[in-house]
Amino acid sequence: MTDLLAKLYPDHLATLKQRSDAALAKADCDHLVVAAGQPRLQFLDDRPYPFAVNPHFKHWLPVTRAPGSWIVYTPGQKPRLVYLQPRDYWHVVPDAPAGYWVEHFDIAIIRKPEEALALLPTARERSAVIGEDNAALGNMLPNNPPEVLNHLHWHRAYKTDYELAMMRVASRLGVRAHRAAERAFRAGASEYDINTAYLNAVHETENELPYTNIIALNQHGAVLHYMDLNRAPPAHSNSFVIDAGANFHGYASDITRTHASKQAGEFQDLIDAVDAAQQGFVEKVQKGTNYADLHVHAHHVLACILREQGFIRMSAEAAVASGVSGVFFPHGLGHPIGLQVHDVGGFQKDESGGTIARPPGHPHLRMTRTLEPRMVVTIEPGLYFIDMLLAELKARPEAKDIAWDKVDHFRQYGGIRIEDDVACGETAPENLTRDAFAAAA
Ligand code: GLY
Ligand code: MN
Ligand code: MN
C-alpha cells in the first residue's frame, strides 16, 4: 500500500499546487499559509476537546496529529512544512516527519509554537492564511479569503488517484468492522458491546473515527443520529442499523447497513427492497447526473416501495407531492465525502462560489451539484418509522391513505438506511463500499 501511495503522491501534490496557484491569483496573494490548528480547551478546564486537524492541512500531507504546525506554499517553490515537536514530558510528542511525502517538503522543526513566526511569510498582507481563529500566532491571523476557499473547495470535490486510493483503504477498514459488528448483533450483544466489537475490528479510537458511530437496535433505528449505547441487550434484537466508518490518514468512509434477525422476515423484505433501490441509485452516479434530481428520483422509488409493500395507498406521485414520502425518508440522499465525512462544496455553483439551492421541500439535502468523474458521494436512502413524524402525519388529510396497522406494526424495527461511498467514474460508478464487502467475503 505504501508503495502505491508513494507512486501516486507526486501527482496529488502537483494537483494541489496547480489549484493553489489559481486560487492565490484570484485573491492577489503570494503565499498560501495553512495552520494545522490548535486544540480547544473545555470551558473552565485544562482538558482539550479531541483535536481535529484543519482539513486543508491534511490535504497536503498524511499527517493528522501535528497541532501548532504550518504549511507554506509559494508558487514556484517547494512547499515548506513548519513542524512543531514541542519539548513536552506531559504528552506524546508528534513523531519526526517520515514517509514518502517528506522529500517533497522543505521541513523546519520547531520546539515552541512561536518559533513558527520567523519561518512564515513576512508579507502578511500578501498571504492567504487558512485556519481557525485560535490558530492565530502573533500577527499571522487566519484571514480565509473567500476567493481562495471557494476555489479550493470547488476543486476538492475532484479526488486525485492518491485520494481515491486512500478512500478505498478507509472503506476496507470500515467494512472489516461492519462484519464484526454484524456478528455481534447476531450473537445478541448489546449496543455497547457491538460498538466495542466494531472498535476492536477497525482498530481506531473513537476520536480517530470520522464520526460518532450509530449502533441502533430495534426501534432505536428510528432516531437518525442515535448515539446512545445501551449497556444491556434487548430481550430480542430483531433489527439493527449501523452507520459507522473509518479513517485512513485523514480520509473518511461512511457506511450504513441494516440487518434483520431470522425472526423478522417481513422487515428483511423491506430491507431487500431498499437495498435494490439503493443499488439503482448508485448506478446513476454518472457524469452529468444532477445530485438533487437523483434525490428527488429516490423519493419516487421509495414511495413505490411503500405502496407495493402496503404501507400507503396513494400513488407514489401523490406521496412525493404531498410530502408523505418525506415522513418515511426525512433526510438527504447523501453528500460529498473525503477529507471530511460531510465534505465541503456540495452546494457550490462554480469555482468562484455561489449556491445551487436545494429543491423546495427538501431542506436536509447536502449536495446539489452535478456529478462528474472523480467526485465521491454517499448514496444513503432510508425508510423509517419515526413516532414524531408519524404523529404529525396522522393529523393530516393524507392520513386516510396510510395503512396504519402495518405502519404501527413496523415501529418496532425503527428504520432502514443503506449507505455506500461511490466514486463517479468516466463510464461507470465505482462503489468503494460494495467492492470492499465483496473483497472481504
Ligand atoms: N454518518 C452520517 C451520515 O451518514 O451522513
Ligand atoms: Mn453519510
Ligand atoms: Mn453514515
Describe the SSE topology.
Elements: H1 2-26, E1 31-35, H2 55-60, E2 70-73, E3 80-84, E4 106-110, E5 127-130, H3 146-156, H4 161-186, H5 191-202, E6 214-217, E7 239-244, E8 247-248, E9 251-252, E10 255-260, H6 265-283, H7 291-308, H8 316-322, H9 324-328, E11 348-350, E12 353-355, E13 376-379, E14 382-384, H10 387-394, H11 404-410, E15 415-417, E16 420-423, E17 430-431, H12 432-440
Parallel strand pairs: 1-5, 3-4
Antiparallel strand pairs: 1-2, 2-3, 6-7, 7-10, 8-9, 11-12, 13-16, 14-15, 16-17
Helix pairs in contact: 1-3, 1-4, 4-5, 4-12, 6-7, 7-8
The structure holds glycine and manganese (II) ion (2 copies).
Glycine is lined by residues 211, 243, 254, 380, 419.
Uncertain regions spanning at least 5 consecutive residues? none
Annotated CATH topology of the largest domain: Creatine Amidinohydrolase
> What is the number of beta strands?
17
Shape: globular
N-end to C-end Cα span: 20 Å
Biggest beta-sheet profile = 5 strands, mixed
Strand/helix succession? HEHEEEEHHHEEEEEHHHHEEEEHHEEEH
* Bound ligands, each once: glycine, manganese (II) ion
CATH-defined architecture of the largest domain:
Alpha-Beta Complex
CATH homologous superfamily heading of the largest domain: Creatinase/methionine aminopeptidase superfamily
